[in-house]
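Hi team, as promised in this morning's meeting, here are the two structures we talked about. I've kept the exact order from the run log so nobody has to guess. The first one is mostly here for context; it's the second one we should focus on when we meet again. Sequence first, then the predicted structure tokens.
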Amino acid sequence: MTNKNTDFLVRLQEFIEDSESEHQRVQQELREIDLLIRQSTAEVERLSQRTSQMRTKVAAMETNLDDYARSEIKSIYNADRESQLRLAMIRNQVDQLQNKQRNMEKYVQELQRFLDLTQHLPSREELATQQSSLGEPRKSGAAGGFSMARVIEAQEDERFNLARLLHDGPAQSLSNLILNAEIVERLFDSDSSRARQELSNLKSFSNSTFQKVRDFIFELRPMMLDDLGLSPTLRRYVASFEERNGINVHYQLIGQEQRVIPAVEITLFRAVQELLSNAVRHAHATHLQVGLDMQSEKTILVVEDNGSGFDVNAALANRNREKQSVGLAALRERVETLGGDISFDSAVGRGTRVAISIPIEAAPTPQAAA
């Protein structure tokens, strides 16, 4: 066997070992998912009973509406809506977990098929013996291992977060709108002047809800990113983030504003979302800086904060246990997929500086395109 072939088998053996570790990890995750499904299913049954009881209570109240004070009516309606929304959310969570379970089971089967096919290959010790007779092989990095599981996990986490945000944001606001509309409808028959006042309040609340929904859509996918590009979108997002959180966020553009390929724009935008959120939620930062340097061959993004900082190596090593590190690890993989680099400069007690550099393919500026 030639040195080249032996070296290939060594790398393949490394890949097999990574696959075995991945197989064990996914099996453990499947056991955890199964437990979560059982717990969530039990919660669905409990919430179904509670929702049924609340619907009975609402029906009884609507039959004798004059016997209830406005505060009681609102409280009962709120409890009923919350019960229904909570039930829908848990059911959705069960569906997501079951879908994830099916995908992970297919993934385990593919891993097992691969391991079965390679079980008769020579061991690492046997290959080392062959290498010693052929001379020193070239050095090779460890195989990257499978990333499919992490992709699936990231997708499911994103869907769960989306469901939670919908429940806490637009869904809750729309629920309150429906509740207030029902109260106004009842008042028109008994107190028209009060009904008009409530209708005015409902209009104001509707405008506020509409703005919240627009902000929610912007968080998911800002249309101006496609229309105007990265810098204007970041400028607006930073201003909105500053207003929502009541902290100082400074944005600076270096170089001439220009369009870059969509993959780079959305990656850098998501990076700012992730890093600003982490700085406030986990590091409790009070001052942040976002710098965008658009050069002819690459775009550089720098995000700094004065928060509590973190141990970078420990966070990335324990990404399966910490939501913050899961986001940072996924961000690093996404940047590297585009041929870019990302560096984390942080330590406990002294803040964080994250720098991202991604090669770009320059496109016409908005003005030139027009």
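And here is the second protein, the one for discussion:
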Amino acid sequence: MATFKAIVIDKTPAGQTVGLVDFDERNLMEGDVTVRVEWSTLNYKDGLALTGKAPVVRRFPMIAGIDLAGTVESSACPGWKAGDKVVLNGWGLGETHLGGYAQKARVKGDWLVRLPATMSAREAMAIGTAGYTAMLAVMALERAGIAPARGPIIVTGAAGGVGSVAVALLAKLGYAVIASTGRPAEAAYLKGLGAAEVIERKELTGPARPLGKERWAGGIDAVGSTTLANVLSMTRYGGAVAACGLAGGMDLPTSVAPFILRGVSLIGIDSVMCPLALRQEAWRRLATDLDRTKIAAMTAEIGLADVIEAGTRIGAGAVRGRIVVKIG
């Protein structure tokens, strides 16, 4: 019997359990590619799954982890062969399909993206779903015509995973970045990533006016709720905001005023079911448009045995930047 180490979430009458266990390979789910997982990462969604604070996991038992990077071990998919280096983000990994906190994964070949030639598996997971989502948001703003010359871009939840990568990406692309954070002590960190200005989260947490003073040309929001409502009310005429998170809540207490009086666009960013062509473009852009020395500086490394404790910390908002998980 072949087994491997995995972080498994299960559900009992007494509640959710999480542990590092020996998992039987025969219990892997269907898929046409088997991957030897080398690295994973810790995202906010992983923290929610590991702590049970939100109903992320849809089947039990579940190997946690919404990301993985590694090497194809075997493949029945024409597009992949043994030895190929791959990245996988989303597609229900760690939610409906056994995930990346394991030494082995069996997945659909159509879900995989080839690891960029200039990027290591560890670097890919330092970026992870958080960074890939940030890139999708930047690309959405570009498609909406929000160029650097239009004015500053606000990034909310800026010290978190999505926010940190978004700040670094936007700064390298020439945007003036306003970073919003609930942790003022992280101002030096955010300016080191390229933020031109750092504001406190409390400026965006009160009830939103239908229209506020026009302050930015666009935004990337990972918080939701009143924060997003305030960002929209202060977006300049013809601006756009990419929404990709709900750390502050799923509600949106706003009015139609920003949309019909200032022509503001609210763009939804989905990283889980994102089409393959867009994923490939995002990873191509990440390989060229992201200063990986800044990513390295914001990244901490843990082992598989440390994931459960780290998941508690990220769920409590106590993690800055990115955490990579060494699987092998």
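Starting points for discussion:
The two ends are 19 Å apart (CA to CA).
Residues 121-143 form the longest helix (23 residues).
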